[in-house]
Amino acid sequence: MRATVMYKAHDVRVESVPDAAIKAPTDAVIRITRGCICGSDPWPYNDGPKENGQRMGHEAIGIVAEVGSDVHKIRRGQLVVMPFAYSDGSCMFCEEGLNTSCVHGGFFGNGGEPGGAQEEALRIPQADGTLYPLQVGEDDALTPSLLTLSDVMGTGHHAAVTARVAPGHRVAVVGDGAVGLCGVIAAKRLGAEQIIMMGRHPGRTALATEFGATDIVSERGKDAIERARELTQGFGVHSVLECVGSAQAMDTALGIVRPGGAIGRVGVPHYGPIDLSTAPFYHNVIVAGDPAPVRAYIAELLPDVMEGRIEPGRVFDRTISLDEIPACYRLMNEREALKVMVRP
Amino acid sequence: MRATVMYKAHDVRVESVPDAAIKAPTDAVIRITRGCICGSDPWPYNDGPKENGQRMGHEAIGIVAEVGSDVHKIRRGQLVVMPFAYSDGSCMFCEEGLNTSCVHGGFFGNGGEPGGAQEEALRIPQADGTLYPLQVGEDDALTPSLLTLSDVMGTGHHAAVTARVAPGHRVAVVGDGAVGLCGVIAAKRLGAEQIIMMGRHPGRTALATEFGATDIVSERGKDAIERARELTQGFGVHSVLECVGSAQAMDTALGIVRPGGAIGRVGVPHYGPIDLSTAPFYHNVIVAGDPAPVRAYIAELLPDVMEGRIEPGRVFDRTISLDEIPACYRLMNEREALKVMVRP
């Protein structure tokens, strides 16, 4: 089968690899019908992969092609969405909804086994706990939105949840990538009154406005902090959704959070220690977040997708074949592509 | 009147100062019947005060001696407890229970105006919002426990609340000072199942056990982390109450917190940026805390004190006069005194 492999920074190839196959009785294999390039893929694309030959991709919808002997809930032929992390669904962390900390869990496309989802098929460990069956056809119009439940919509929701968005809150979303845009959807869904999108890419901020952003702050650094404070009577926001992962994004988050407010950080952190003294001094700011337990959120978000109340699939701005993936890594890296859907 | 004044590191004196007096119509003046030396006082005692001549102390019970023309709830002659921060009780932060971020608020004994509570009398800004009347006599047997509502019991409770202690939780308390011991009381009160006291002072850890600690870890550094993990099946604790404020205490907290767990940090922070990468990697650890809005907690904690369900006053191990304060700063600094009550 064909798969996406990263050898070193800026060296991504689509090539032939051995077919995905069951290894453990709790595994399934899915034939991927839709994959994605993620806003986090440019990090290894620039910094280099974890190994020379890392299989890439961690978001997919697919059809179950095979199940192991100890898989009881997932059945061959089902259309399923795959969270970016696998989990057994039964350990104490999974039971608490923290599937990303599953004692038998791990991440797809993160180096080593299992492989990635930018390929034709994928082995899914802990299939019963990991996969979530969908009740639509393979080419349903809702497919793009359903595909975001694999990562970006769940991650935006996690940013909002960990930033404690609540009805009436003032919220800022740092970052106009796909996760930030889904963060806007999540904040609005949870009842935020004011949603400030901190981003400067016109097409994306326009989409943010359609998703519910009430204000756009296109400045950066200190100017961005000042502008966001002006928009909040000088006090800052209750909730900051940090959806970038850079040091500057975290500094902005700490600079605009209100006393007693919370920062939900879901950007893959590329910063050092967090200097809480840059937050409102002594003002009980909460720092939370990390990888989203998206598996736990699917049941909550799916009805809103199915009934069209949220349309996170609008973040996709292009659909490509496997062969176009290397070129699209470059487009993602240059911020020319917002979110890429792959049809293997 | 006589007051405690710190001139430089290790130079604390009790001397005559002008009498406390009303300055604003929202002020009151209290005659202090009980004050304290705080576990945080050794910080300026070693590092030097904020100003050459800083008035010290921020915990007290007293009798209202005088009220300004715009004070309507507090009356002359009432016995009151004074939180370590003053607050108007009506701004948006106070209404949310975050009195320490009051837009008209500030801290006692923190340099400049108002003065401190290690003296005979004190001007109380925002008297209506700040002071909390008590329904006991000046020398009631409950006085020590009531006095802890001024700071240490409320602060231990805040550590527990911000660390999200809940029924059945495994909890660790870092620090066996008065706040840590009150943290044990708070954790037990909120239903913790396991309470690990991380401390090495035998008298204090014994008191922790009486308050509800189930395990004592007297090791430090990496050994302490290892021991606490052994006590929690290797996973760490749901909630860490960081009641010291040193870099080592914060490192310990990050080392023993469980995936999805929370750190409530209430020790006055004497550390730099927090390296969240030392916490369980990618495991959604929450960092919260800061100065406790103790004023907001009095109504909740007072009934338990009045009815004897909690006895935080047991943290006091000596009662002294004003003149003995300088000597007792030395004892506190050498950890020979746990918590000192002052009868001016």
Automatic annotation (TrEMBL), chains A, B:
<keyword id="KW-0862">Zinc</keyword>
<dbReference type="Pfam" id="PF00107">
    <property type="entry name" value="ADH_zinc_N"/>
</dbReference>
<dbReference type="InterPro" id="IPR013154">
    <property type="entry name" value="ADH-like_N"/>
</dbReference>
<dbReference type="InterPro" id="IPR036291">
    <property type="entry name" value="NAD(P)-bd_dom_sf"/>
</dbReference>
<keyword id="KW-0560">Oxidoreductase</keyword>
<dbReference type="InterPro" id="IPR020843">
    <property type="entry name" value="ER"/>
</dbReference>
<dbReference type="InterPro" id="IPR013149">
    <property type="entry name" value="ADH-like_C"/>
</dbReference>
<keyword id="KW-0479">Metal-binding</keyword>
<dbReference type="InterPro" id="IPR011032">
    <property type="entry name" value="GroES-like_sf"/>
</dbReference>
<dbReference type="Pfam" id="PF08240">
    <property type="entry name" value="ADH_N"/>
</dbReference>
<dbReference type="GO" id="GO:0008270">
    <property type="term" value="F:zinc ion binding"/>
</dbReference>
<dbReference type="InterPro" id="IPR002328">
    <property type="entry name" value="ADH_Zn_CS"/>
</dbReference>
<comment type="similarity">
    <text>Belongs to the zinc-containing alcohol dehydrogenase family.</text>
</comment>
<dbReference type="GO" id="GO:0016616">
    <property type="term" value="F:oxidoreductase activity, acting on the CH-OH group of donors, NAD or NADP as acceptor"/>
</dbReference>
<protein>
    <submittedName>
        <fullName>IMP dehydrogenase</fullName>
    </submittedName>
</protein>
<feature type="domain" description="Enoyl reductase (ER)">
    <location>
        <begin position="129"/>
        <end position="342"/>
    </location>
</feature>
